[in-house]
Amino acid sequence: MFLEALFFQLGYNATLVTFGATLLGIAAGVTGSFLFFRKRALVSDAISHATLPGVALAFIVMVTLGFDGRNLPGLLLGSAISAALGLFAVQWLSSRTRLTEDAAIGAVLSVFFGFGIVLLTVIQTMSSGRQAGLEGFLLGSTAGMLYADALLIAGGGALALILVAIFRRPMMMASFDPEFARSSGINLDRTDLIMMGLVMGVTVIGLKIVGLILIVALLIIPPVAARFWSDRADRVVVIAGGLGGLSAWIGASASAVAPNLPTGPIIVLTAFAIFTASMLFAPARGLLISAIHHRNFQRGVHIRQGLVSLAQGQPIYEPMTIRLLRAEGLARADGVPTPDGVARASRVLRDEKRWETARSDPALEMAAARYDGLTQIEDVLTPDQIAELDTRIGGPRGVTP
Amino acid sequence: MSGSEFVPLSLTPLIIGCLAAVACALPGNFLILRRQALIGDAISHVVLPGIVVAFLLTGAISATAMMLGAAVAAVTAVAMIEGIRCFGRIEAGAAMGVVFTAMFAGGVLLLELSDTSGVHLDVEHALYGNLESLIWLDATGWGSLLEIDALKGLPPELFRIAAVVVIIITLLAVFWRPLAISTFDEGFAATLGLPVTVISLGLVIASALAAVAAFDAVGSIIVIAMFICPPAAAHLMTNRLGAQIAWSVGFALASAIVGFVLAGYGPLWIGGTDAVSAAGMIATVSGVILAITAVAGPRRRAVT
Amino acid sequence: MLQLANAENVRAEAQSLRQSPFAIRGLTVSYDQKPAVFSVDATIEPGKLTAIVGPNGAGKSTMLKAALGIIKPLSGQVTHLGRPVADEMHRIAYVPQRASVDWDFPVRVIDVVLMGLFRKTGLLGRLSGADRKHAMACLERVGMTDFASRQIGQLSGGQQQRVFLARALAQDADLYLLDEPFAGVDAATEKAIIAVLKSLRAEGRTVVAVHHDLSTVPDYFDNVLLLNVRKIAEGPVATTFTDENLGAAYGGRLATARIDPAAVAG
C-alpha cells in the first residue's frame, strides 16, 4: 500500500496530492535555503503562525456573504493577507523599537495565533461553523481533499518553483553579501520582499497539507540538512530542494496510507530523519568526518608542539602530548626523546625555522599565510625557494627529510 | 454577576490564568535580554512531546511525571540545539527550527497514535489549552473560600501553577545577581568563576517548569505570548532591570484579567451568546499591550 | 643545535613560572582546523605594563580568552604565580572588548561597577552601603561619578570603556587583563585610562592589554608581546619593539609600507 502510494498508484486525487506535496517540498527547500543563508530562518515561523486569523476571518467573511466558507482559494487569500500583516509587524517591531528580531518573532507568532484561536471559537458558535474543519489547517490533512484543491496545491507548488528559478541570482547575492549586492545594483529591499513573498507563498500553499504549525519545518530542515553535504551555496540550494521534495514525497505517501493521522508531523519527521542522517554521515561537513579530522589535527598539533619542545630542551607539561609522543615511539615516559624522536624533532625545528624566515619575506607572504602548524613547508614552496631560505637561515644543513 | 456563579465558574480559571502569566513572564524577562526569546518558543513546543512521553511511560497523568517529562524534553531540546549549533556549525535560529518542529511533530504523532481517550489530553487541548474547564464545582459562593470541604475540590492545576510561581520567585530572588551578571556580560561572568552554562540551563529548566504548568491552561503556543509579550512591553517602559520585571508582572496580570473577562463576557456585551477562547484572548490582549508600548512606551527606542 | 631537557633548564623554568603572574605554555586555539593561536609561550613580568601587539586576526583576543578559559583551547597550560589560572581567578580582573556586551541591557553604571564586587559578596550575599561607597570610589578614579545613575547604553564608547575599567578596579585584583581598552575611545578617555593603568602599576599590580596602535606602545608600555598566531617576540619595549620583530609579526605589509615607492618603481 505504501509502495503504491509512493509510486503514485493510489487513485487520481491521492496522486495529485502527493505530486503537489513533492513540488511544494522542492520549492520550500529552495526558498528556505535563501532564508537560512540570510540567517532569518525563524521569521518563517512568525509568518506561518500569522496565517491563522486570516484563515478564520476569510471563513467568517465568506459565510457572511453567503458563500461556502470552506472555499480553499478564499481561505488561502485570507491567510496570505494576515501573514503579510504579521511579517510587517515583525519588521516594524525590530526596526522601530529596541526589541530584537527574535522577541518580535515570538510576540507576533503567539499573538496572531492566539487571536486566530479566538476567531476559531467564534466560528464554532456559528451555525455553519461546526463542520468548518478549519482545525485541519493547524496540523495539515490530506484526507477528503477536493480535486480542485489538490490541483491548486500542485499548481501553486509549480509556480513557486518557477519564481524561485527566476529570482535565484539576486536572492543568492543578497543572502551571501548584502553590502556587495547593494553596491552591484541589486535592490535589497525588493529582493528581501521577493524572498519573503516566496516564503509566504510556500507557507500558504503548504497550509492545507502540512499545517501552519509545522510548515516552517519544511522551510528550515532541508536547507540545514543540505548544508552538511556541500560548502557551495548553489549546490546547497539544489540539494535542499531535493531533500525537501524527498521528505514531502515520502511523507505524503505515508500519510495517504494512514488517512487518520495528520500529514504535517509525518512529513516533518521524514525530513528530520534525513537531517539526522545528513548531519552524522554527510561526507563534506558531517559530524563523523569532522570528528576524525579534528582528532587528527589535535594529535598532529600535540606531536609537533612536543617535538619543538624536545628540540629546544624544554620540559613538556601536557600528559596528552607525552602520551602521543610515546605512542609514536618518539619519547619515553619521562619525556626523554628516543633516537627517532631526536631526528624528527630536528626536522620539525628546521621546518619551523624555514616558516619563520618565509614569513618575514614579503615575496613569500602568500605562501606563508598557509602555515597552520602542521603543513610541511615542502608542500607549499619549491625546492629552490627552500634552498634560498636555508641559505638565509645558515646553520647546519644536509639532513634530508 | 453573583458570587454563586462567579466563584465556581470563573474564580479558579482567572487565578490560574494570572499565575500562569506571571510564571512565564518572570523567566521571559531574562530570555528576552539574552536574545533567547525563541528558546521560549522552542521550550513551549517541546513541552508537548515531554508530557506525552511521560504519559506513555507512566500510564497516567501525574503532575510530577508531567513536570519531569517537560523538563527533560526542554533540556534535551536545548542540548540538541547546542549540539547542532556547535558541532554542525549551524546558526542558532535554524538549529532551533530543526529541533522544535521535529520534537513537536513527534509529540503530535505519538499523541495521535496512543490511546489517550481515558485522560484529559488531546491535540487541540495541547495547542491552545482549555482554561475555561478548570472550574471549582464544589464552590457555592464566596463563602466556600472558608469551607475546608469545598477547598478540597479546587482543581489540582491551581496548586501546581501556584507551586511553580513560588519556586520561580524564590529562584529569582536567590540567584538574582549571578543571573543578571551573566545575562549582561557572559565572558566577564565566566572570569568571576560563575558557572555560566549551569545558569543558562537553570533558566531553561525554570522556563520549562513555567511552560508545563501553564500548559493546562493555555496550551503550548499561547504560552509563548506569556513568555515574550509582557517582558517585551516592559522592556520598552524602563531602563532598570528591577523595574522591568515589575512592569512585566503588571502587564502579565493585566493581560490575564482583561483577557479572561473579555473572553467570558465580551461576546455577551455585543449581543453574542457564547464565550470565546480565554487563552487566545489573553494572548491577544498581551499583544495589544505590546503594541501600545511599542508606539508610546517611554523607552521604546534603541539607545545606541 | 639540539639540546635535551636538563636539570638547569627545568629549574629555571620552574622559577619563572613561580614568579610570573601570567605564564602561558604551549597554548594552541583553533577554529575549524585553522589555528588562531599556535603553540604560544609567554611569561608576563610582574609589576609591569605589557602590550600584546599584532596584526588583525593575529589571535590576540583569542589568546587572552583561551588563557582565561572563556573559550576552550586545543592544548596549553596557563598559570598565575605557579598555580593554574582557573584556581586563581579571584586574583585576576578581565576587561572584555566593548563590542562583546549587550548595551541595551537595563542596568545603570553603578550596577555595572558593583558587579566587580561579586567575588567579595559571594553568590547569595547582599550589597552593603560600604560596597556602594567603594564602587563610587572606583568610578571616581575613572572620572565617571556624574554618570552613576545613567543607563549604560546612554554613554559614549569611551565612557563605557571607563565604566568597564571601574568595574575591574572594584575587583581589586593583582593582574589586570584588558582586551583593546583603547579601541574606539576619545582622546580624553585614552588619557584617563592610561593614567589609571599606570597608577595600578605604581601599586605593584600587573597590567596586560591587547593594543593595536603601534605609535603609542613606547609611551604607554614597559614590555611588549608580539603575536601573529605564533609568538614572534616578547620582552622590554626598548629591545623587543624593533623593526625586525615588527616585520616578522606584520609580515610583508609593514615592511612594504616603509619602502619608498619610487625605489620600488625603479
TrEMBL record, chain A:
Gene Ontology BP, a term: response to zinc ion
Lipid bilayer topology: Multi-pass membrane protein
Location within or outside the cell: Cell membrane
Domain of life of the organism encoding this protein: Bacteria
InterPro entries, sorted: ABC_BtuC-like, ABC_TroCD
PANTHER family: ABC-TRANSPORTER METAL-BINDING PROTEIN (PTHR30477), METAL TRANSPORT SYSTEM MEMBRANE PROTEIN CT_069-RELATED (PTHR30477:SF3)
Family indicated by similarity: Belongs to the ABC-3 integral membrane protein family.
Membrane-spanning intervals of the chain: 12-37, 49-67, 73-93, 105-126, 146-167, 236-258, 264-288
Keywords: Cell membrane, Membrane, Transmembrane, Transmembrane helix, Transport
Stated name of the protein: Manganese transport system membrane protein MntB
A Pfam short name: ABC-3
Recorded name of the encoding gene: mntB_1
GO cellular component: ATP-binding cassette (ABC) transporter complex
SUPFAM superfamilies in the cross-refs: ABC transporter involved in vitamin B12 uptake, BtuC
TrEMBL record, chain B:
Chain ranges passing through the membrane: 6-26, 38-57, 63-81, 93-111, 158-176, 188-211, 217-237, 249-270, 276-297
Assigned keywords, A-Z: Cell membrane, Membrane, Transmembrane, Transmembrane helix, Transport
GO cellular component, one term: ATP-binding cassette (ABC) transporter complex
SUPFAM superfamilies: ABC transporter involved in vitamin B12 uptake, BtuC (SSF81345)
Predominant subcellular localization, coarse grouping: membrane
Compartment(s): Cell membrane
Pfam families linked: ABC-3
GO biological process, one term: transmembrane transport
Highest taxon of source: Bacteria
UniProt topology in membrane: Multi-pass membrane protein
Family matches, as PANTHER family: ABC-TRANSPORTER METAL-BINDING PROTEIN, METAL TRANSPORT SYSTEM MEMBRANE PROTEIN CT_070-RELATED
Family statement: Belongs to the ABC-3 integral membrane protein family.
Name of the protein described by the UniProt record: Manganese transport system membrane protein MntB
Native source organism of the sequence: Boseongicola aestuarii
Gene: mntB_2
From TrEMBL, chain C:
Entry keyword set: ATP-binding, Hydrolase, Ion transport, Nucleotide-binding, Transport, Zinc, Zinc transport
Ranges where the ABC transporter domain occurs: 22-254
Pfam families per the UniProt record, alphabetical: ABC_tran
InterPro entries, per database record: AAA+_ATPase, ABC_transporter-like_ATP-bd, ABC_transporter-like_CS, AztA-like, Metal_Ion_Import_ABC, P-loop_NTPase
UniProt entry tagged with the keyword Translocase: no
Aminoacyl-tRNA synthetase found in the keyword field: no
Main enzyme class: hydrolase
Spans through the membrane: none
Alphabetical list of CDD domains matching this protein: ABC_Metallic_Cations
A GO molecular-function descriptor: ATP binding
Biological process terms in GO annotation: zinc ion transport
Enzyme Commission number(s) of this protein: 3.6.3.-
Family: Belongs to the ABC transporter superfamily.
Record PANTHER family: IRON TRANSPORT SYSTEM ATP-BINDING PROTEIN HI_0361-RELATED, METAL TRANSPORT SYSTEM ATP-BINDING PROTEIN TM_0124-RELATED
Matches recorded under NCBIfam families: AztA
Identification of the protein by name: High-affinity zinc uptake system ATP-binding protein ZnuC
Organism whose genome encodes this protein: Boseongicola aestuarii
Gene: znuC_2
